[in-house]
Every structure is written in structure tokens, then in C-alpha cells.
Design a protein that fits this description.
Collagenase (Catalytic Domain), Lipocalin, eight-stranded antiparallel β-barrel, six-stranded mixed β-sheet
Length: 355
Amino acid sequence: MTRRVRVTILGVLAVCGVLVPAARASARTTVVVKDKVVTIKVSVDVFGADALTGPDGQPLVDYWEKIAEDTWNAAFDRYPYCNRYKLRLDVDLRARSRDADDRAGRHRLHVTAPRGGTDWQGVGWNGVPETNPQPGSGDGTRSFNNDRVGTIPANAPPTIIVHEFGHLLGLGDDRKDGVATSGRDGTVMVGGVAGVDPTKPLRIDKELVDRIGTEITKIENEVSCKVALWEGTTHGTNIFPTFIAERGDVVCHVTVDGRFNFAVAPDGKVTGTSTTQYDGYDCDGYSGTTPTPFFGNETARGFSVSTFVAGTGGPTQFRRTGDRAHGTYAVHNADNDYEYTFDAHCVNCDDVNVS
């Protein structure tokens, strides 16, 4: 598995009905989410591949596996879903003899005789009904909800391999009546469009990655492209020396209470506003309400935002646990002695499936 296959992204291939047994409902495209990495595991038994090799001499299933993983993962590296999640394809192909028994929980792919020319009609997956279709496209979750059954020639070029695995990731064909749908010319899921050469690489663009992500959100609650909304309260004290004309040098004691809210976009950008009430005693002129806009980013442990309370002059770190977050900011020196605490909760994390 050392030879790298030069494929950019799939192309041709008509996903017509295939005369093979209907798939039982169990499923074997699965998803695991960890630390914003979404691993898509595709498990396929390849019948009739037990004695076949690819053009590079390695077992055919290893050759196909490498093509699918390398090509799709290159696109996933280039286009994070919602600028937040990194998708990863993990393909598990197992060579089986033609008479081997079916195994629940794995897609089933039957290798057919090599073909020549441009005739690739009938290659593809069977017509399992789509119970969760994406309006306006052939995308859906049937490959996540069912074991699919399909056929593919032993000499299928890389573009067809990549295309067929695109279907197992939730994508439909980007064509209608034999013509590529608007804006999809040259992309991998156009399928059997006239004039497309399946031996030539086609591209995987951001739209295809986003469409895969959309299908994953239907089955995986930990993946969401929506904005999370947070709100919370600020409490603290500020003690500092100052000079007041009528009184000379004094030490001011100021209590600080406030409220804030912020939004966390799918790309991790934080924007919000903090409104702080200052109540000073032992000195005059240190009372009032100050609104402060702030910005920041989501981090591995929570959030890091810019100046949160007017006059503090430093970033605030929030440590997140579930739908709660807590932060502190303190300065202790000869000029200032202040400490603030911030407590926040997410008001819609359950609704937008953000964890």
C-alpha cells in the first residue's frame, strides 16, 4: 500500500437499479465524533475479490480502500464541515469468496467481470428506499440506516471507486435526465453524464463535503452547524488608590455586577456584549453602567474572549463543562486589586445539538 493513486475526485457512473437481493435494515456506514473529528466508518464485504489484485499488484480491496480514503480525506482536510468539524473516512474492505455468506452490519459489493470502453451502466448500489431524503437532491441517510448491496467491475477506474463511496457517505447523483445539475459539472457525483470520461479525475468541492455533513447531522446529535447562544452573570470587586480633590489620596472600593451574552458560531468564533454595573463607595464618580462588546474563540477547554469588563484590559478564559462555563479574571498589584468571576450557561445547546 505504498503507491499513491493520483485521483482528485470522482466522476462518472450511473447508479442504476442492480439485480441483487434487497438489503436488510441494519446499516454499515457509521459515525463516531471525538474532539470535533467526525470519523465515518464504511464497512464493506467485497464478494469475488479474494483472488484479485489491483493494477499496483496489491490485493484489490487494499487498492480500492486506499483510493477511497486518500481521495475523500484529501477533500475533508481541505474543507472542514462548517469550519468546525474535520471529517475522516475510514474504509474497511474485506475480500470474500463469491459464495460466502452475507454478514449483517456490512455493505455488500459484488465484483463483476472487467469492462472496457465507456459502458459503465448498471454499476452501483441497489435502490434501498430513502426514508430521510434531502429536498432537491438524491442525498439521504439510507447508507447509514441500511446495509447496501451493489456491483462494480474488477477494473473500475479510481473515479468510479470514489464516486461509489460517495453514495455510502450519503450523497446522491448530481444529474437529472442524463445532464449534470446546475453548477455540478466536473464534480465527482455527476454519475453517468454524457461526455464524462470515468478514467479522468473529477473534483470533490466544498459543497459535497457540506452535503455529507448535513446528512451526518440527521443521525448524530454531536454534530451541528448552528450557532450556540450563551448568557451569564458577572460579579466582582475592584480596589484601587486614587486622588480626589476634596479628600486627597483615597482607596476606592467598587463592586461590579453585570450580565452578558455571546454567540458561538460553527467555526468557533465568539461575539458578545457585557453590560456591567459599577457601584463605588469610599470615593465619588465610580458608579454607572458600561456596555462592552467582546470577541474571542472557542478553545479545547471552553472559550477565550477579549476584554470582558471595561477597564480590566485583559482576556478572560472560560472553562466549559457541558452546557455550563465558568471564568475568572484577577489582577493584584500596587495599583489595582480586583477579581471577577463569570458564570454562563448555554440556552440552546440541546436544540442545536452542540455539546
